[in-house]
Fold:
Amino acid sequence: MNGIHDMGGMQDMGPIKYEKNEPVFHVEWEARVFAMFLAAGAWHKWNLDAFRHTREVLPPDDYLRVSYYEQWLSGLRDLLVRRGLVTAAEIESGVPSPGLAKATPPLTPDKIPATLPTRIHANRDVQVSPRFQVRQRVRARNINPVSHTRLPRYARGKFGTIHRDYGVFVFPDTNAHFLGENPQHVYSVRFAARELWGAQAAERDCVYVDMWDDYLEVA
Amino acid sequence: MTTTRRDFLTAAAAIAGTAMTPELSHAHQHEHEHQAVPSDPALRVKALESLLVEKGLVDPAALDALVDTYENKIGPRNGAGVVARAWVDPTYKARLLADANDAIADLGYVSRQGDRMVVVENTPAVHNLIVCTLCSCYPWPVLGLPPVWYKSAPYRSRAVIDPRGVLREFGLEVGENVEVRVWDSTAELRYLVLPERPVGSERMNEQELAALVTRDAMVGVAKVVVPSSGGQG
Structure:
């Protein structure tokens, strides 16, 4: 989706606001949203791609206006309802619907050190042939899906070189919509800065973008 | 023929077999018109937490433990330990650059099967900069949670098109003869910059070196320096 989240290459967003000795969370509710998202994620009712997409479909003015953890709160509420863990009525009322047995939380404090390191776990140990080889010249496809994609607009249609093959990973474009993992190779693709931005870019500079097989075509 | 988002979502729900409630599909059709994020997040978060606890979906003690972990245990000190080890141990450094996940797992910050880490090395000829233009991907296990500026529109938008301008904003001037490499974290690889070991640190041990390494240097928006106040220049 060509949304506001896909902002690589935009200009005039203002100066970078650096905060010295920044706390991990600025207010307590941010910490609670963060923790609720991880703890509820232990039900395995959604994946990280689906979560990213909930933030991408926020109205653009909200996306830019609200704080980062407000985006998380919105995404968490959306997934909880959409994936059947709570109902919209329960969100509205704040109390559980009567008659349902209380569940047992899958994530308990003792499991936390063991759970976190495998947080992302998007690589897959399956045999899939790579479509491209290291050092091969490739072109990023020019696609404009209305759904989730991790192919940024600034790279579409541009020529680059396969720098490294990272192995097989789930494909976000389908995974985000619960349409299957569609595992395929992910490559680091090197684009010359001038290929992306023209003569204004420094001659030696480059941008490396991680790309799935389905984002690439033979150059 | 163009597919609208509404068409797509309807088709996706049908294929995925999701039990989309009528209320929800309705909400989705109009999601762009809705005020998605009303005010008073603190109250809404409190209400949501009590709902999830009452339903037995989350354990409040697990929430406390998660917050404590990310406020106090996982942070840039982890990454600094990795960098300092690489500076004093050339064999470790070679392994770190070849297979970062495996080398970082030695220090206990990632599992060998979990997050996929990639370490990129700064040299006199190459300066690396990490960004996630599409969201906020960041190497949690070695740096903790990202600062607000890293997740903000100004940094995400300009890091790829004007990295030298961004670095200048952080007070770092990179020479014309240096190649700037920007790493856009679009997949589930997490990048960490191995900064150059600073001049004046030759006699320092691993622990002293780790104390010099900053979060900003490991994202690539700063260099590591030896403080000059000790009379060591």
Q: What stands out?
A: Strands of chain A lie at 137-140, 159-169, 184-192, 206-212, 216-218. The helical segments of chain A are 28-41, 48-56, 60-65, 68-82, 88-93, 112-115, 172-175, 193-197. The mean pLDDT of chain A is 94.
